[in-house]
Amino acid sequence: MSIRTTPRPFFPGEQDESVTNDFRVVSDSKQKNYVLDTNVLLHDPGCFLNFRGNHVYIPITVLEELDHLKSKDGLVGYQAREAVRTLHRRIDGRGRQCVTEGIELANDVILHVAFPDASPRSIPGRSNTQGSLRTLPLLEAQKNDNEILACAIKIREQSLGNETFLVSKDVCLRIKAEVCDIPSQDYETDKIKTDEFYTGYCQLTMSDKSIAKIFEGGVKPPKSIEMMPNQFAVITSRDNDKHTALAKFDGMYLVPLRYTNHSAWGLTPKNLEQKMAFELLMDPSIPFVTITGGAGSGKTILATAVALEKVLEQREYRKIVFVRPTVPVGNDIGYLPGTEEDKLRPWMGSFYDAIDNLMTIDKESYGGKRNKKGEEGSQIEQFIEDFRKRGIFEIKTFTYMRGRTISDAIVIVDEAQEITPHLAKLMLTRAGERSKFIFLGDPSDNQIDNVLVDSKSNGLVYVIERMNHHAVTGHVTLRQVERSLLAGIAEKSL
Q1: Quick check: 341 and 388 in contact, CB under 8 A?
Q2: For 4-46, how does the pLDDT look when each residue is reduced to its tens digit (9 = 90+)?
Q3: Per-residue pLDDT tens for 316-335?
């Protein structure tokens, strides 16, 4: 069976180009049918607008699944509610038309709501089923994936020569579709199209004279190298390979780092990569910083140290907002007792650990002496609770951020590889005046628990690749593990 190569999706707002492997209609091709699985709408609630010039089908089973999921806590519940709202805005008042001829939307998309067969409750696997459903005699009855697949088969058989594709982020469903001779594909619109992710720095070779000019006011990078604003350059002298320098591109020139000899809450960078990250975190002219790296690379402790320094010591910002997506293995946070902060405590261990380690460095200034019982843990809890009650620390989830404007604050988003591009945009559009947003995470596939994203489609890599050409952003990838010798060996070997 021949499976069609996944096309490059069209982004709304791009210039039209006559390419044959796009979702768009070109002069010598017909419209195509795209049947969407539930997880595609959960990943991107407005996904149907990206299939320019084609028919998009939402199976009724998908609407039922969204209805079930919308009451859940956490990221899945939020995305389900967003998907329902987005569909309602397009379908409201035209429901019957959506089932018959379809509703024409922006980008020449024609949206349909489809049933698996003549009856909305027809189930694959029944011996008396008609048409397309006879091709599924061995599939389990009353299984949502099978109803979605049956819907795709029916649409293919009823279409007048249009190709039909099932779009799903569920690999198992895509395999089923291929077995049933339905071409299938992942949702590719916001996936990064390269295996070489932007690291935030490059290697350069320059003369001793050029290196000296960096520290005398700056020097332009070689014309053969395209550099992004706030990208770093690790420079080696071509005259003496032992002569090295570290510089940052300010948009025109390579300039020296400003915060090389600084510390934050007693913490100083331990390696070259941490120096780059520290420079971005300390610079008030860069309101959005992303840092990626494996366990023990220092992402969270660096960001937390700078946040404490900027808020408690230098008073540059009024508060720190800690945000972490809740992607639980078991129940959602709604099942946990207590306030929002109490419910989030199990997910905030990295922040508590970072503050604990920093308190060890700078105990005297913030009451770091042991209490009467000698319990260091309760001391950290009390430290955080005191500043939380004063409104200086906030601990939030994404579901509580909708509609807010965050000003005069440092916002640290940990485990950002768990969020979708839609949620990443939601978070960044909360930014008000005098705010600094810091996204941290490890986008490796084995570090992602959210089934709606992977290493190339998560919100962290999405914002890095889409925003790295702006002067208000900066990114660094940390590869060196500093937690311990054992942690470093485990990160490399396992």
Answers
A1: yes
A2: 333 333 333 333 333 223 333 332 358 899 999 999 999 999 9
A3: 999 999 998 865 433 454 54
For residues 162 and 180, give the distance between their C-alpha atoms in angstroms, rounded to a whole number: 17
pLDDT band at 119 (very low <50, low <70, confident <90, very high): very low
In Å, what is the CA distance from 6 to each residue of 14, 17, 356? 19, 18, 48
Q: Which segments of 443-484 does DSSP mark as H helices, in order?
A: 459-467
Are 36 and 48 a contacting pair, CB within 8 Å? Answer: yes
Q: Which CATH superfamily is domain 266-493 in?
A: P-loop containing nucleotide triphosphate hydrolases (3.40.50.300)
Domain 33-185 has CATH 3.40.50.1010: yes
* Burial call 96-111: b when 16+ CB within 10 Å, e when fewer: eebeeebbeeebebbb
DSSP 431: B
Look at phi and psi of residue 221 and say left if phi exceeds 0, alpha if psi is from -120 to 50, else beta.
beta
First to last CA, the chain: 37
Question: Are β-strands 473-478 and 409-413 bridged in parallel, bridged antiparallel, or unpaired?
Answer: unpaired
251 and 473 Cβ atoms separated by less than 8 Å: no
Reduced to 3 states (helix: H, G, I; strand: E, B; else coil), residue 80 is helix
